[in-house]
Request: fold
Amino acid sequence: MLFKINKKSASTRRDFLTSAALFSLAGCADNKLELIHPHFKDPEYAIPGNSVYYATLCTECQAGCGLLAETKEGRVIKVEGNPDHPINKGKTCALGQSLPQAHYDPNRVREPIEKTQLNDSKGNPVFSFNPLQLNDALSKFATKIKNASKILWISKELDSFSSLYVQEFCKKFNINFITYEFFNYEHVQKACKRVFDVDALPEYDLSSADIIVSFGAEFLEYWLNPVKFSRDWAFRRKNAQVFHCQIEPRQTLTGAKADLWLCIKPHTEIYFALALLKAIQKLKNSPLPVEILSYLNKLEIEDLISKTDIPSHFLHSLANKLVMASSPVVLGGGVQARGEHAETLEVACLLINYCLEAVGKTIDFSSGVKCSSDFASLDKALSEFDFSDPKAVLILSGNIEPWLPTRLSISEKAKQKQASIIGFFEILNTTAKLCDLILPVDNCLETFSAQVRGGLVTLGQPAMLRLYKSRHISEYLTAVQNALLNNQDSNVDVYNLFENYLRKSFNLNSQEIKKAQEVGFFPLAKSKIKPKLAIKSFSIGAAKDLDDAKLKLLPLGTVKAWDGRGENRGWLHELHDPISLVSWDCWIELHPKTAKKLRLKNKDYVKLYNSSGYIEGIVVINPLMKPGTVGVPLGITSGEESLSFAKIVKWANANKLFDLKESSLLASSFKIEKTTPRKQVYQTQVTTDEHGRDLIKVKVLKSDYSELKSEVKDEKHHHHGVNLYEQRKKPMFKWGLSVDLAICTGCSACVVACYAENNIPVVGPRIVAQGRRMSWITIHQYTKNLPDNSVRRVFVPLMCQQCGNAPCEPVCPVYATYHNEEGLNAMIYNRCVGTRYCANNCVYKVRRFNWFEYEFPDSLKLQLNPDVTKRGVGVMEKCNFCIQRINEVKFRAKKEGRLPRDGEIQTACQQSCPTGAIVFGNLLDESSLVSQTVKSERGWKLLDDMVNTQPAVTYLADLKFQT
Amino acid sequence: MTVIKSFDNRLVISVFSYVDDLLRAYTLLKERGFELRVYSPCPIPDIEEHVANFWSPVRVFTAAGAVLGLIGGFALAILTSLDWPLRTSAKAVVSVPGFVVVGYELTILLGGLATLLGLFFLTRVPQIFNRDIGYKPEFSSNKFGLVFKCSKDELKDVYEILRTSNAEDIEVRDRI
Amino acid sequence: MQSVNYKTVDTLVLNTLRPPTLGWYILFGIILLCLAVGVSCWTYQILNGIGSSAKSNPVNWGVYITTFVFWVGIAHSGTLISAVLYLFRAKFRMPIYRIAEAMTVFAVITAGLFPIIHLGRPWTFYWLLPYPNQMALWPNFRSPLLWDVFAVTTYLTISSVFFYVGLLPDIATARDQAQSKFRKLLYSIASLGWRGDAEKWKHYASAYLLFAAFATPLVVSVHSVVSWDFAVSVIPGWHATIFPPYFVAGAIFSGVAMVLTLIIPLRAVYKLHPLIRAEHFDAMSKLTLVTSCIVGFAYVTEFYTAWWSKNPFERFQFWFRPTGDLALGFWIMFVCNVVLPQLLWIKKLRTHIGFLFVLSIFINIGMWFERYNIILQSLYRDYLPSAWGHYNFSWVELGILLGSFGWFGMWMMLFIKFFPSVAITEIKEILPVPKRHEDDSH
Reply:
């Protein structure tokens, strides 16, 4: 694989240089039109039908995962993790998987746009967006900068390449540059500063941790570095080598995987943390500063605990466990913990880690990643910014508006503005619409980028030519700079700028740069930081806002929306949130008791509003949350208008409900009332209960994993003894899959990957609501009551089980589905007449039917995978273990006169799975990984004992320590 | 002799409203060695035993058809399955139990169709437009008909017989 | 049957062939309207995609298959009455079997449309037929759906042949008494020039007997095969060995009900009282009662087996049917098919025409809902609770359902006007043979 990439990306460079030559900005003039179409003259390395991979970087979040962009005939069709990249080792999250849809987004800004305000007959302002020539746009931009009295630039977190040029530019023209992210880690960084006097975010190493205590940190979803954390956690988890305790008001996906889930009263995590700190300090009597010790002595464990509604015995057992552990780690707060004490909570956690001697072992500050988001100065600058001053200029990059609290909302302030707003945008989103001048910037799949993290510099490079007349931000800035400071010498072609950046910041020579780009990253000389305790004292004010009387609003993060930047990606819309099971729509989570009090029931349609905003959505009853709280998902678009794919969508209003201060997310009082229900309800599961059928297995461990091995395996699951029919001899292959539920976090990356790989249409809310979603693999959720009377949410990725004795096959009157020689349940799309008997007879209901002719929005057609046919109306389809990938490898192997190696064939879902829960391979090959995993003592086949379907998919039971 | 006879052939159509009359006339004329045809609105057992006392070969057709169907049905299912053998689930390519249905249905289908053909063949239908002289509409309603040929010189005692067995109407046609 | 003789039979029956009255035209108009609705709905569905029906995953079958089974069921009593009762020499079949057979043929024609309407790609329906093609593609003879194709087509062919052969002499009668030129020509062609001399009658009788003998196993086989569409699958509530007998009984039940629904107005309109008399209704009522009891017994047995099997899926399914979301459908079925028919134990009601008519309509509704229960309820709640779904009717489906009645009604109306809807010849057969000395005797 590695060799392959090198070969490819060697040519990548050549290919790139040609393209770079194509779109070099000759004096910012832009007269030639570029069209994307399959190569009419293939580059010599590009064999039609064979993929070319480009090592690049994912800029969706700060984690800095390396990507491989798969291109066919010169267009990106899929992104996958770069297998050699130390951070994500070839894996990605759902958001990362959806990158191609961001790239081909129908709402991309295709050329510079100028907004002009007209007045209609009634005198109301109407806006018209008119395209501009690039050089006109640039000159407009330049003049604005020149005559500006005051310039404020608000930006999302930029990758270090862009930020270098932006910083430079801002220095030159004294622009007040402020970064702001909604999901920021300011408080964490501040805490680090206070406790250890280091100016960086901590990097946790979970691959060695044997106990994890997390105060709601969603480290398996989107917290800090989720893909890496998931992998490390899974590595320990598989063999039950880690005990994981999650403390939060409402169970997150991460919480669902915990051995011990403690439901804490909102915003009281700090008290639990203090109690824990005190208990541990007692047990280990670790040397803490005097003030802190005296402060701790003042506190009473019992009355701290009493504030949190958690029985105190949990605290003590937890403290003991932590002290006993060889390498424990305590993670800080997640989104739900972002109360007034968010920062103090982090401080307390760091102190606990310090007491446990985890610092330097499982926690490390030398990764060099910073959080540049700074709300305080944003708040100041925005409130001071004078919109009435015609000379004032506001520059925006990134979709800031929806992240701002109402009191800072730019759209409000800009109503009667004189000042001009300029924006750098990929997509014509809510914020972009506020700008007078929009300069289109490149998507990360068509330009250069760089991210410094984890002692690495990860490089991004274009995987294909630009789709539209967009440029990299650095090109704009340098061009303007040149124009204003009239220096003609410097080149404004993005590649040169990029090389300059690499030379300047890391003094690489072109050889090293070339090599770095082939691999996709290069290591930095890591300066090991030995953090010393810098903090002298800390304390928290009196407990505020702890009365149970009034409802509390809980902000919930989701894997499908994160902060909502995937606003217009059908794949993410169509995804259901694994906990609320709602797709496309927004929802409001209530504990049964709370719902009863509010006289609301499941699937009621309600409106929740306060002074600063509102959302509409369905009520979802969730027993696994604190009574007296109301959960609202952040970043989920809400309301009829939003439920449209490939149209401008309204941003999530849930963000607006909260009043941001520093890093705290607190809502002022709010109301809930029923509204006119929408016709359909976009909840994808009727029930999560098993209805007394023992379908899903969960193993509860008393001491350790070995006790499973001693268990005698139930012979019932094997039908090899009895079979009415003669067994078929399979020549070489019997493809099989195993899914380890113990490490499946429900992150849904596999689902998105499957959509991308198999040209699965996005059908939209109404059709989803009719139960006609097309996803070939779906995350099913079951809620089980375990013998240790805890409630467990289990996530079951369900794809076609490729049954050996498939009920679907014999009932097809026209052989549109049959059993092929490799044990696959093959589909012949164009033979299907659409009787749908197969789907009825499928025990797992994993077959999907094309009820209508589904169209792909225009620009998104470019993403379609040419190896997979698009299915027409009236045809049945389903998962086929990515048969196109199987064949690709088989043919390659045949050409090279060998058999496919184990692991050489990877299904899309397996490839993306961050925890490696999905394993695919040849069951007839005794040495293959899958034949090992299916033999696991946790293995069982879904429904096999009931219906004798003999599936090729083996599930491995979920694991949990008894508590 | 016969040649001359053939010149003065006559067709006698006699109409009865009672079966016993008809049968009396029939027996008497039969003794005279006439070839008689008997029409009735519906099958009537007495007439059948006197007039059409023979074994109808329709069932031969039926049997042939049925056997053909049985063989054909299984052949179709088995041969087409073998023509391009595709496995569905764990079932054998030639799974006879399933094919029984096909064999069974085709047996009945072809058996039935053969019977129809047999009936048509034996009763010489369809004969829509060649007018069968000697038929009267009331024969399909409520009258019985006795139709036969005789020569001119036989007519006299034929009349006699028919009158005695009180035929309602006697029509003699001299064109055949 | 002293009141009736050969002549009166003719006049009574041929009377139905008189030029239609205004009432007939109005009714026919309404029926055509229904048909038009159905046709336009189907057109819409073909253009818009099968998704315009309310089906979804997991409920992949719905109103269409329900209606298909319903009509196939209706089609049964025809052959039962004409063939089976013929073999049993049951005299009461004579006046009613013609209408029953007509009903059979037209019901099969209607039923036959639904599998096609139901297809995702209706334009490829002929791929289910075993026709030679250069790609050597043959259908899968292991599939119950293919068995259906054979069973239904065979049934259609044989019952039509049987129907037509029975009709031949009557058409001849009609021909011989036709007034208008058009009808004369029509019947001459339709009767194939049939003239009933003794030998022809001989062949005819034995042929008819053979047809009856061949059609009889069909009565059993067709609906058994249809029931295998369900019984062969693995879905809880479908996978049951009781299905074939249960379906056949149900079919006869619904068929007899439909015969009543049709024959009662016919008798009233055309004054056929001398031919179709109380004893016939009494006999049919008894048949209804018997089949109703069998069906009821089958329902109970289903529940019992579910309980006895200890299979959680089966048990849940049968608990769900009377109590779940679709319980209404179940109770409609139960009341119409099991409870109401019990009234027929009362002798008076067995011959009370008005009551029978209403009852027969209830039974038709009930039998539609029986299939609705089997199909929807089982798909609604099968193995994986996380994959359960929901179903609500769409106007397209209901339109097509209405259309099917229009289609059936159209053929029925035309038949009544153009062909003798009561068997002339066979009634004559059971009349006393006219003999002189018997006439003298009184």
In short: Chain C touches chain A through 49 residues (CB under 8 Å).
